[in-house]
Batch of 2 targets.
Target 1
Amino acid sequence: MYRFKFLVTGFLFLGFHLVFAQKEAYRLELPGTTQALEMVFIKGGNFQIGSPSSEKGHQRDESPQSNIEVASFWMASTETTWNLYQHFVDRDIDGESLQKKDQDLVDLDIDAISGATTPYVDMSFGMGTDDYPAIGMTQKAAVQFCKWLSALTGNFYRLPTEAEWEYACRAGSQTAYSHSDDASDLELYAWFEENSNGKYHKVGQKKPNAWGLYDMHGNIAEWTLDQYEIEAYKKLAKVKWNKPLKTYPKSVRGGSWIDSAEKLRSAARRGSDPQWKMRDPQIPKSEWWHTDAPFVGFRIVRPYQTPSKKEQELYWTTK
Amino acid sequence: MKKSTLQNDRRTFIKQTTLATTGILSASVPVKSFANVLDNKKLKLALVGCGGRGSGAAVQALTADDQVELVAMADVFQDRLDSSLKAIIDHFDGRKKIKVKDKNKFVGFDAYKKAIDEADVVILTTPPGFRPYHFEYAINNDKHVFMEKPVATDPVGIRKVLDMARIAKEKRLNVVVGLQRHYQKKYTTLYNRVAQGAIGKITSGQVYWNDGGVWVKPREADQSELEYQMRNWYYFNWICGDHILEQHIHNIDVANWFIGAYPTSAQGMGGRQTRTGKEYGEIFDHHYVQFNYADGAVISSQCRHQKGCDSRVDEVFQGTSGSVELGSGLLKDLDGQELYKYPYKWGQEANPYQVEHDELFKSIRNNGVISDAENGAKSTLTAIMGRMATYSGKTISWDEALNSDHHLMPAQVDWNTTPPSLPDENGHYAIPTPGVTKF
């Protein structure tokens, strides 16, 4: 696992707050619960996003490969579980939000954060909830979860950008999968069509990647912040992320329990689709739930350098 | 539907109708019920009950057949009607012209009559307590109907729906009930296999709707008690019937369907243990019922609205030579070996909520008759029988339930009506007590 056992030598000046943050993994405990996430420190750097046309399974939307710089951040070692997500749906621990201290980076009124509606159907579809990944939330809902978690903890959490996601998934590799080019080893690292038995699995059961991140390939596909565009990589050299201007499609990464091996590749991309709400019997269809996407969930990140208050809002608003 | 296909259908339809007319006339069926179709190319649609589900059903009806036009809407609340119309317009985003005249937007408890008068086909999607009365009016006025489940909250309402179901059939009116599993390919495929003997004769089963519960609408300062209950209808029995009806009917109905009969008696237990706040009205948070069938088959039915527990919405049946699990689509033999697995592909199956309306409008165009109301009423009664058993702690027979004078709905409801359940000085409602409560 990628750990830095020393204190940061400098400090960041943010508004009126002086902040020292450690460049090492930490445990994010959810106030008022026994739930926690292991946050892995991902040291920033450069990498090649996308895949070469010679890669087996390569798609046009993975080109052109571009050199991207990514700043340091922490990423949850696992996908967000139902145990955590349910507290956002129920809003039953809002009163536990941590006492704000001077050095806190985020100061939000938790009551002002909109919450997901209670779904009419069982959104786990009988596949299990304890330690299983939360699924079927819209990207907007996942973004709001991050805002709520920030209000609860005083630290800035958000979804990863598409570039951050692929950087973390690759963990320094340039191969099709983070461990190799060979799909035959994939079952050691991932739940997918071949071994999932038609359902998702508890998070963190397979081997992690070189940076200590579990289930980046498979189990459930993961929301990113970005709009999905076939030619997105032409833009990413200039901007850090492709901020959505419309609801569909948004970029989902990593492949899932229903996908074939090729769709789990580090470079593989997918766009969300209105069909993911096909069987929502209500009009207007829910802004919070995808009745027909039991393969999509998310994991959270926290940038090492907390953005300004104004920029925070940019990450927390989505179409 | 493509235009050319529709024209072909219409030619065939007119031919069939002409052929059929002699027979129909002798059966003293009013010609009016299908005159609507002959006279107008368009089918006029009315929406009664403008919630999220009603708006969804309207969109599906308007999608099923491009000659359908939404002409009237009814709700007790102006804001619900307005937001529903906006959501329907937004859904089509200009792809279909939606224009409901202001004079055809009806608000109030009697609004349903005025909206139904304007239409050939009506969607009945108010809270279920009102359904028997709305269905009665629609059938008496020769309308084709899509109505949501459950179709009543008490036996008096059930008997009305059964009477009207018979009349609808005589009048050759189409009635589709929103028990959408009957229109879902996974279910019909597995049903056909079971009906052909894949697992022998069903002797037992388990049906589930266990999850964390549904929405709550907080009480607002200026609301009357009746408005509060109408807005928060899920938690009041006269309009909702408890979640054993409102949701679990889907699974209980599948048991009746697969067994091919309705139970002769029910006994069970239930209560309110974790969802006890006054904002949850008077309904239980769990029910467990044993339904007994004449041939000896027994169905265990459980429904739970408790957060943090296992979730499961499913139906499982054991037969003399195997078993079937509807959720996973699996048929197994007595050794647990797979006999068949339904090849389900997420996102590639027809949407059963849409299929309901496709079938309804196809049948109307083809002079067919879909008659879902009798089963809808009997499966609703099965759930009511279960509720009577859990509330009373007594065994309830089918005949006792069917013939009961148990009546939750007031004879007439307007804004002066006092709701049948009222809160005490602390805002709490009386909760049924097994051993004390009669039904």
Target 2
Amino acid sequence: MTAFNEQSRQQVSDIVEEMKNLPGAMLPILHAIQDAQGYIHTDAVSIIAEGMAQSRAEVHGVISFYHHFRTTPPGKHTIQVCRAEACQSMGSRQLEAHVKEKLGIGFHQTSADQQMSLEPVYCLGNCACAPSIQVNDDVVGRVTASKFDQLVDQLSTQALEVK
Amino acid sequence: MVKVYIPRDTTALAMGAERLATELAVEAKNRGADIEIVRNSSRGMFWLEPLVEVETANGRVAFGPVEAKDIDSLFDADFVNGGLSHPLCQGLTEEIPYLKKQQRLTFARAGITDPVSLEDYQAHDGFKGLKKALEMSGQAIVDEVKNSGLRGRGGAAFPTGIKWQTVHDAVAPGDAAQKYIVCNADEGDSGTFADRMVMEADPFMLIEGMTIAGLAVGATQGYIYLRSEYPIAHQLLNEALAKAEAANLLGENILGSGKTFHLEVRLGAGAYICGEETSLLESLEGKRGLVRAKPPLPAIVGLFGQPTIVNNVLSLAAIPYIMAEGSKAYADYGMGRSLGTLPFQLAGNIKRGGLVELAFGLTLRELLEDFGGGTFSGRPMRAVQVGGPLGAYLPESQWDTPLDYESFAAVSAVLGHGGVVAFDDTVDMSQQARFAMEFCVVESCGKCTPCRIGSTRGVEVIDRIVNDENREDNLELLNDLCDTMIDGSLCAMGGMTPFPVKSVINHFPEDLHKPVTEDMAS
Ligand SMILES: Cc1cc2nc3c(=O)[nH]c(=O)nc-3n(C[C@H](O)[C@H](O)[C@H](O)COP(=O)(O)O)c2cc1C
Ligand code: SF4
Ligand code: FES
């Protein structure tokens, strides 16, 4: 993940400038920044605060309220494990333990090699084919430990092919 | 050219529909089969996903669940001509009992049409309701909704017509006088996916319903507040919005009527509490999703301080049918004060999970057994949570309760958004009670103490009970804590978290008295 440089700064300013006049612009702005940069850097917070005529504390308050927004760079791949009831009824607690062990990280953590981030999620709307996880943009249903291992192996081989 | 349908619904995709569609197209080409693949949405028979349908002279023939490895054998069995001999063949889709026994009003088009084809939508009665509404007064539309008996499908079951009347009668204050229609598409409850299905299967229906609401109360701007966990719904809604605008069914001077309605999708950011309507409005305004005290009601002081209708996706999605077919046609379904149909959602440890739209009144057991077919694991079913994470767990003795709002309230349970989650006998109910409190810790908006602090204490007390530390005293403490949360919380997050907990205390006490095992002590 690249550092927050002049270019990133410019990108944030452009987003704020373009969207700030929307009614209730804050969430759309935060989404746009996170979509573009993967997370919301501390320095982005000052730019947003200035553009929106709010204090940095206010902007930070909004960011920290929502689970979706992050202030640290994510790994190359993000895996979300559903922790809600329908998934529990199909063994998600055991799956969760397996996932943590396989990836060697806990929730809200990123692996040391910056490959994987792990996040909890409470329902992906796939409750009839539980347990569910999301791998980057894709929801996967009826996940077992071995299906999970295969998915992770695929992600790592793809990474090698790209190089 | 034979039409072959492969859904692009989230669940179908989660079960491999994308790869299936790609590989099936390649194989068709290799074999010189003249097919057109239509990406429809799901019929809601999720245990059969990906469900592949082939159009034949007798109707659509279904195959499912189809995996990529089945493609060869499907072609070998001539599935393109409805090859009924294939082991995955389910016969004519419409004759599958799960579907045939339903009463689909809201989900009439689900899985049948291409969700973003305006032509499909219009060929299946789409925009009939809007066209009628354009010729009616606002009050006449509100009256029609009142007469339908429709009650909000988002959980609280408040009469929709009365909410609309309040906004209709309210005077918008200030220079920027404006009324709003806000669709609550935050669907955070575990075990619910009907809102998602509406948006992925029939987005024009929601657009039509919201536009009619705008006409009814004189609102020219609407927002769909969509949870960020639903990217496919997001994409399909935006596609549908663009098409409706291009066809002048939305925007300025709709179909030359002089009436205007603008609609936009706004994404949430992963906060369960933003499903609560006042928290949702705060979030739409760009703030932390803190719950507002009521009164004033959002109908009077809502988004940006203006009169606002906040309705669930299913409530708004029921409107086009009510307008097109008349309020009486809708009210003829249902029982008592629960009129119309409710889309039940069968999930969790269930053999045939999916969407079942039926008039209110069948029993939970009928739903679990006749439709659900028992547990997925094949083990005995033990507990069923109805109405999402704030809903009670029902033991078998309560499964004969009819599915309507009043009957559920009578057994201290809630129907909520119609989500049903089954558990088999391996469930540890003490852990389910603990999770209810834990979920409240994670998702509380933090405004009131009983909810914010009480839930953390709740987790600790349950841990002590499970560890057999002063069990009797701690059970009493847990009961007191639940009562404090019920009485002292501003909204149903803190006020209903005790429902699942108390249901465990009352109906599954043996699980709170189990000897401690290693993995529980975590
Ligand atoms: C904690 C909490 C979460 C809620 N989540 C939702 C939700 O996800 N979707 C929804 O439509 N209503 C939800 N509601 C209910 C809304 O506050 C509101 O009653 C509903 O959107 C009104 O629409 P309706 O009258 O069409 O049901 C929630 C309420 C509470 C207290
Ligand atoms: S009960 Fe909980 S979620 Fe509801 S207002 Fe109070 S603190 Fe917020
Ligand atoms: S509970 Fe896991 S997808 Fe809904």
